[in-house]
Specification:
Bound molecules: pyridoxal-5'-phosphate
Helix content: 40-55%
Largest sheet: 7 strands, mixed
Strand order of the largest sheet: 2-8-7-6-5-3-4
Number of helices: 12
Shape: globular
Structural class: alpha/beta
Number of strands: 12
Length: 387
């Protein structure tokens, strides 16, 4: 059967790494997973308890397309708690994960052939979803001196209809402060481009609080999710905040594309928002893991890294070690038993010489993984034997 041109999207390479790791495990190897971009923990206990109760009491049928009113209200309240932003719950749209939010946002804002700027390196699915919708992703190669985030000058004269940013970002974990976010918003609006802010890693910050675009403007789409801080990846629930005059447009698309986000997940998400103690305990683990990574990776010979402000990733420039990150990742899996992600997923041009390490798993795994990497790099003669 014939396929559409726009269906020719690239694979998510990390999935291929996960498959290779799974095969190694099936063959009896013990693998440390530094490739996965998800918490090792499950949904908070309060969330599963609330769902168990709801399952006894309700058929959990469709919800209205914009989501359970109580959940929209609770999300709006979060903006008061986290950023001191007074948000009208009517602007909150509950989505099937932030991935569902991207589909809604791109469909609501852009016409076929529109150009949308995305930072490179960046989350791979932005590019692929844009392509699948007949839009044109425009990679904005970012500079190490800008901590691998786009700056206003990168988008001048690019003829963009949209600009998508992420802070903290995947794969780098770096953030945009008020000034950096503000100048990007101004530059985007200056060329008539819609500004979209992916804030999925908010809550996972280590030095300073992440800035929401809503602190600076109401003329933007903000996309967030229960997947990361709330530790609910498989539940497929997230949210979007849109300007008031965009709510009805998004609602009509959501009604037709998804009907609603999974009802059960919305019930669990609402309860998860009050499980602060458990979520902060998860964050404490990431904080410890991050410190171990920032100490252990350079000692293992991965010296070119930008300390991440948030999320649970470290992005390393390995250009002095390889020009084929996919082969290098395969070698690390084979010889060290550590799964890592080649940078090609995030940056098709320059990702041949970068790797992403995730520290979302347990501290014991991170310690073990770092030791395996050190031994591997010693054997590869990148670093010497310890004195
Ligand atoms: C930056 C970024 N945005 C969005 C997503 C997708 O998340 P969700 O589970 O909410 O669809 C991910 C997943 O890793 C991500 O890293």
């Amino acid at each position: 059967m014939r396929n559409s041109t726009r269906s020719g999207v690239g694979p998510f390479i990390v999935m291929d790494v996960m498959e290779a790791a799974r095969r190694a495990e099936e063959a009896g190897r013990h693998v440390i997973h530094m490739e996965v971009g998800q918490p090792g923990t499950g949904a908070p206990k309060g969330a599963t308890e609330a769902l168990a109760k709801a399952m006894d009491q309700s058929p959990l049928g469709y919800t209205v397309s914009l989501g359970l009113p109580a959940l929209r209200k609770r999300v709006a309240q979060l903006y008061g708690e986290w950023y001191d932003v007074d948000l009208n719950p009517g602007r909150v749209v509950i989505t099937p994960g932030s991935s569902g939010g991207f589909l809604l946002a791109f469909t609501a804002l852009f016409d076929s052939g529109d150009r949308v700027g995305i930072g490179a390196p960046g989350y791979p699915s932005y590019r692929q979803i844009l392509r699948a919708l007949g839009l044109v992703p425009v990679d904005l190669p970012t500079a190490p001196e800008n901590r691998l985030q786009p700056v206003a000058a990168d988008i001048q004269g690019m003829g963009l209809k949209g600009l998508m940013v992420a802070s903290p970002a995947n794969p780098t974990g770096t953030m945009l402060d008020h000034a950096a976010m503000g100048s990007l918003i101004e530059a985007a609006h200056g060329q008539g481009a819609s500004f979209i802010s992916d804030e999925i890693y908010h809550g996972l910050e280590y030095e300073a609080k992440a800035v929401t675009a809503l602190e600076l403007t109401d003329e933007c789409y903000v996309i967030n999710s229960f997947s990361k801080y709330f530790s609910m990846t498989g539940w497929r629930v997230g949210w979007m905040v849109v300007p008031e005059d965009q709510v009805r447009v998004v609602e009509r698309i959501a009604q037709n594309m998804f009907i609603c986000a999974p009802h059960a997940s919305q019930v669990a998400a609402l309860a998860a928002m009050d499980c602060e103690d458990e979520l902060q305990a998860n964050l404490d683990v990431y904080r410890r893991n991050r410190a171990l990574m920032l100490d252990g990776l350079p000692k293992a010979g991965f010296t070119k890294i930008a300390p991440p402000d948030g999320a649970f990733y470290v992005y390393a420039d390995v250009s002095d070690l390889t020009d084929d990150s996919r082969a290098f990742a395969a070698e690390i899996l084979e010889k060290a038993g550590v799964a890592v992600t080649p940078g090609l997923d995030f940056d098709p041009q320059r990702g041949h010489t970068t790797l992403r390490f995730s520290y979302a798993r347990s501290t014991a795994d991170i310690q073990d993984g770092l030791e395996r990497l050190r031994v591997f790099m010693t054997e590869r003669k990148v670093i010497g034997e310890p004195a």
